[in-house]
Amino acid sequence: MSGRAIADAIIEAPVVTSFTRLGYQARRRLDGWTPLDGYDLTGRVVVLTGATSGLGYAAADQLARCGATVVLVGRSAARNEGVVAELIAQTGNPSITQVAADMGDYQQVRNLADRVLTDHERLDVLVHNAGALDAEHHTAPDGTEGTVASQVVGPFLLTTLLLDRLATSAPSRVLTMSSGGMYAAGLTVTELEMTPETYRGAEQYARAKRAQVTLNEMWAERYGQLGIRFHALHPGWADTPGVDASLPTFSKVMGPLLRTPEQGADTLVWLAADDTPLASNGEFWLDRRLRSIHKLPTTKRTDTAERRAQLWDWVAETAGAVPHVARP
User: Fold this and answer.
1) Which residue of 16, 63, 99, 179 is surrounded by the most CB atoms within 10 Å?
2) Annotated active-site positions, please?
3) Is 266 a residue whose pLDDT tops 50?
4) How does the average pLDDT of the chain come out, rounded?
């Protein structure tokens, strides 16, 4: 093991040092990161969900500064338009547009895919970043629990609908923003959706995030041969409006140590821009390094081939879409 690997392992072991700005700052110096402004993404098309605040906004800003054509996705067209105008003024990049869509509403997801396919002949990067930790139980239009609908089924549907365009634009990338909360949750299908009686926002969020990272690996296994790279990542603990609203006590206590949105979005932009992620597929990342999707033996034991297959089949059936790629 190299000296840098040993140093990283020491940082990684205590969660507080790893997930906070302390870990970010230490690893940036340790590995001599390439500044994000050094990447040229001119001509590349990036679709980014959850782009109007927090990590998504920070990523959109940096991607635009790198010259990418950025399609912002948020639930409100009016808010989206305001962010587009703001980012164009800040970055000087006029190639920023928006599409309004709620990722938990599957018809809106289909409309979003239609717009992307109509407006863009290529798609280099699809980023699944939309997501929130909701304190109250709610359901999507189809009756699926809202967190699962917007963070598991909706992204699966969008990837399915855009798979052919991603394949013809290869090497392309599908990136999923996960969360450290998934480390506490095992993989479950029958209990993926919590009921109103058992609902706990943080637990439901963790279950959805576990499903996300599992599906990321499965996408790579099943469709990686098409030249599409599927990667998921953990942003660390970042100071965002979503964290402040959903976990106010955590935000207050950890405030001085939380990462900025820009620090939390760093690995996301790096995964979209750098050539290093093209050398592997289906991986999970934190601070530009590969990480395990399990920290506890209890969650690893739930991660069986049978349960993975059940998850894929359930999500595909709920989304009403079976992935396929049209070939000439």
Assistant:
1) 63
2) 205
3) yes
4) 91
